[in-house]
Amino acid sequence: MHAGTLIVGASQAGVQLAVSLRDLGEQGPITLIGDEKHAPYQRPPLSKSFLGGDVGVEQLWLRSPEYLADQAISVITGALVETVELAGSGPGGVARTAGGGEVHFDRLALTVGARPRRLAVPGADLDGVTYLRTADDAAKLRQMQRDAQSVVVVGGGFIGLEAAAVARAQGKAVTVVEAADRLIGRAVAPVVSDFYHAAHTRRGVTVRLDTSVSALTGRKCQVESVELSDGSAIPADLVIVGIGVEPRTELADQLGLTCDGGIVVDSHARTSNPGVVAAGDCTVQPNPVTGRGMVRLESVQNAIGQAKTAAATLAGRVEPSTAVPWFWSDQFDLKLQIARLSPGHDDFVVRGNPEQESFSVLCYRDGALLAVDAVNAAADYMAVRKALAQGSTILAEDARNPGVALRDRIGPPTVSA
Which part of the chain is the Reductase C-terminal domain (predicted)? Predict the structure, then answer.
């Protein structure tokens, strides 16, 4: 009897991989195992609608337990896989959980995700210091935030700014502390960073750039103050840390898989052991834009696309993912939509008016369309995403004309999509 496919990590990528295997006609057993007690759920809303109290975890389910059962996908929750061993050189083996359970498999997929990077300063273990990655994290933070008056958010990326927006909307005094010289610096063009700095400030959030945290202080194990590198201090009865994530590579290391800032995979989601695939936030992969170098893409779209590719690989098909990376963030009433990433651009066009909080930034490199950052400008975002997906461009001179609809200026494909 076949042991079937084991997917370690009940994540967005894990669920998609399991469902895609069934879509491809896989008839054998599929087991999805995760260390959280909840059925697999969406993570992006945790720092948005869930943290704001608008939805419960059941409303975030990726697929209902009934659907997964109907697909004959076995889901094991609340089970941390501590060790994985392969039988010889093949892909089969056994996984062992912290509770003493064993799951045998013929094929293995790792969709283990990432963990929050910890703040390494004195006082980081005080009560009132929290991170946001899981549904339990968000539920705990939601409860803590009800009683908090002064909130300090460490980190000016997507998670930090989304959490800051929720806290400020609840009337809290909020300060964002960012060590870099601009907000969301890894993901957006400088003009968009400047906009979000101004937009948060207009709404009453204090933003401190080029500033790092040197210590957290408090009494009776409760945080009371955040000390900064410039010698100043901010009162805080709640500190939310959002300084990035670290891929979970422990199991990959056990298996001797190549890891370098994540589990290294090729364009077919194959690890350095071609019989083992990996997908999602735990991986680094060939840059889908340039084909040169390796990148880690933390997004729902990448998790879904890479999981579909991994499923195809397990099913014996060669189908590299060619989808355009896209991202989004909801902060206050501002919806940011990104297609591809803008770092490396040498020219840009701003359409609309940032002061009216509806605009887009089209980024170019060597005259070619590279990416778009759109704030409350869905039509521009969709047009650029379509152009990028089909290997087309939108000329900068056309984009500079505010009276022109971008969808009408998408050129013919210049490369294979």
Answer: 326-408
Q: What are phi and psi of 403, to 5 degrees?
A: -85, -5
Threshold 0.85, pTM exceeds: yes
Residue 417's pLDDT is: 41
Q: List the one residue out of 308, 307, 333 whose CA is nearest residue 199.
A: 333
Express each pLDDT in 129-184 by its tens digit.
Answer: 999 999 999 999 999 999 999 999 999 999 999 999 999 999 999 999 999 999 99
Residue 242 makes CB contacts below 8 A (sequence gap 6+) with: 116, 131, 132, 153, 154, 155, 157, 159, 160, 163
Cα end-to-end distance, the chain, whole Å: 42
257/406 Cα distance (integer angstroms): 45
| Distance separating alpha carbons of residues 121 and 191, to the nearest angstrom | 32
Backbone angles phi, psi at 276, to 5 degrees: -120, 130
Among 328, 314, 302, CA closest to 114? 302
Q: What is the pLDDT of residues 18-55, one digit of tens each?
A: 999 999 999 999 999 999 999 999 999 999 889 988 88
- Find the radius of gyration of the CA atoms of the chain: 22
- Listed in sequence order, the residues at least 6 apart from 57 whose beta carbon sits closer than 8 Å to its beta carbon are 38, 41, 50, 135, 139
What residue type is assigned to position 394 of the chain?
I
CB neighbour burial string for 298-309, b if at least 16 within 10 angstroms, e if fewer: bbbbbbbbbbbb
Using alpha carbons, select from 99, 38, 223, 216 the residue that is nearest to residue 149.
223
Q: Tokens representing 172?
A: 């809290």
Domains of the chain: 5-115+246-315 (3.50.50.60), 118-243 (3.50.50.60), 333-411 (3.30.390.30)
Q: How sure is the predictor about 416, in pLDDT bands with cuts at 50, 70 and 90?
A: very low
Pairing of strands 81-86, 93-97: antiparallel
